[in-house]
């Protein structure tokens, strides 16, 4: 089950919900904070990073010993609780749609590439991510950070084993936050890119074939009987 959380979520209600879906027998829970899409009308109800980390700490504290099953890696959950200083890996879970490969990631639409190779080669990755771009400042969504957590697990197998065994830390100080001092301002270009792609698709669209009409030759009238 997919559980996206927003500002104002009550940790006790979320914990009760997790208990209920476990009792229902679901395979697992996928959870993350909602991302503040530029087109979303209710911007004030998205979580910032500090609120996200505190919310998940409170939830995980209530879940100690309950054996909730998550579909995400233990290190990503540890990241949500403020215990990992991760940078996102936007190409880890890319998005491809009718326009092409979305640049730079699943969440942000700031252009499209014709191939994954073009996406990787032509995207200025250093201009995105928390600390680099205003739109990325509060993002802690699995589409960008789960891949980072998996790579960390490969580098530090003992670390993921510890977190998997004991769960995310909920009492010790959180790791320092990434500085936002040098991030570039947001550019609101999604609609512009979508409109351009729609025009391209319309220009390439072949005109509909005219309806097929079967012509039937008229039969001459039967000659009048000879006198």
Strand order of the largest sheet: 3-4-5
Give me the secondary-structure category: mainly alpha
Into which percentage range does the β-strand content fall?
5-15%
- Report the average pLDDT across residues: 90
InterPro entries: DUF3463, Hopanoid_synth-assoc_rSAM_HpnH, rSAM_sf
Organism: Novacetimonas hansenii ATCC 23769
Protein name: Hopanoid biosynthesis associated radical SAM protein HpnH
Descriptive overview:
This protein has a three-stranded antiparallel beta sheet. A two-stranded parallel sheet has the order 1-2. The termini are far apart. Strand 4 and strand 5 (109-113) form a beta hairpin. It is built from seven helices and five strands, in the order E-H-E-H-H-E-E-E-H-H-H-H. The chain has one domain. The longest helix is centred in the last third of the chain and has 15 residues, at 190-204. The model has no long low-confidence stretch (mean pLDDT 90). It is mostly helical. It comes from Novacetimonas hansenii ATCC 23769. This is Hopanoid biosynthesis associated radical SAM protein HpnH. Residues 29-162 form the DUF3463 domain.
Short key terms for the protein model shown above:
mainly alpha; 5 strands
Topology:
Elements: E1 2-5, H1 11-24, E2 30-33, H2 49-62, H3 74-80, E3 96-97, E4 100-104, E5 109-113, H4 116-122, H5 142-155, H6 157-166, H7 190-204
Parallel strand pairs: 1-2
Antiparallel strand pairs: 3-4, 4-5
Helix pairs in contact: 1-2, 3-5, 5-6
